[in-house]
Amino acid sequence: MNLSIRHFKAFLAVVHTHSFTRAAEQMHISQPGLSLMMQDMESQLSCRLFERTTRSIQLTAAGQRLLPIAQQVVDEVETIAPVLSQLSEKRRRTLRVGVPPIFSASVIPLVYMRLRKTEPTLDLRIVDLPKPEVERQVRNGELDCGLGVFPKRVPEVSRRPLFEFDFVYLESRAAPARPKTHGRPSRRIRWDELPAVPFVELHHTQDLQQQINKCRAAAGAARTDGIRMNRLESLIGMAAAGVGPTIIPTFAAPVGIDAQVSTALLVDPVLSLDFHLIIKRGREQPDVMEPFTRTLLEVIEERRDRIHRPAEQDWD
C-alpha cells in the first residue's frame, strides 16, 4: 500500500466541500487529477469511499470509517512537521523568504550579497512570488516569512511593519516634455504638477494603484487613460522605453547611474505606506531572522538616501 498524506488531504477536501470541483480548487489540482487520486485510493483500500450522483456526493460506510482516521493522520503530520522543520533549520541556519518579483530584483540582491560577508553561515533562500502566493506559502509553513505590502489583515498570519515607503514619479530620460517644478530641487514634484498625459499604471483593482489614484484625485491632478499592467517591473520598463510616465514605490525605483529614467519624489502630500514582514501566527522565528531584517533595513535606508537626495543631473 502506498497512500500519501496528499491522498488523505484530498479525501478530506472532498468530504468537507461535498464537491470534487471545489475540492480540486482547494488542492490546486485539476478535477480529473483529483478523481484519479480518489480512484487510486479506493483501489489501494479495495473499497468504495463515495457514492456519487449527479446532485450529491455521500460517504459510503467504508468512507465513514476512514474519515476520523484520515483526519487524525493529517492533523498529526501537520503538527509535527513544523517542529521537525524548525529543528533542522536551526542546525542549517536556513531562512526561506517569499518576496514580490520587483523587490527581489531591486533590493534583495544587495541584501543577499551583504549577508554573504556578514553572515556567511546563513543559508538564505529567496523565492520570488506574487503576493497571494507569498501569503499562502507563509500560512502553510512552506516559507519562514514573506515580504510585501499587506494593507489588510491576513488570516493565520502576523504582520510586522518594517519600514515606510513613499512614491516617485518616473519617466524616460528622453521624454519630450517634463513637468514644471517651479524651480524647486529636481527630485521633488507635487501631485498637482503631474503632466496631463497618459500614464503607465497598475490595474485599478491593485491596492497600490488605488492609493495613488486617491492621492491624485485629492490633489486635483488631471488624468488621462493610459496603459495598465500587472507588475511594477512592467511599469518601469514601459516608462524607460518612453511609452509614458509612471508612479511607483520608492523601494522599486531604479537608483543606478545607468538607469535610463529620471525620477522625482512626489510631495504635497507625501504618500507613505507600510512595507511588511509576515510570519505564520504562533510559529517560532528562526535565529537568523534578526540579522536578515537588520541588513534589509540598512539597504533600504541607503536607497532612501539616494532617492531623496536632490540631483542636478535630472530634469535638465
From TrEMBL:
It comes from the Bacteria. It holds the Pfam family HTH_1. Residues 1-60 form the HTH lysR-type domain. The keyword Transcription regulation applies. One of its GO terms (cellular component) is cytosol. Transmembrane segments: none annotated. SUPFAM superfamilies: Periplasmic binding protein-like II (SSF53850), Winged helix' DNA-binding domain (SSF46785). One of its GO terms (molecular function) is DNA-binding transcription factor activity. Keywords: DNA-binding, Transcription, Transcription regulation. Belongs to the LysR transcriptional regulatory family. PANTHER family: HTH-TYPE TRANSCRIPTIONAL REGULATOR YBHD. This is Hydrogen peroxide-inducible genes activator. It comes from Pigmentiphaga humi. The gene is oxyR_1.
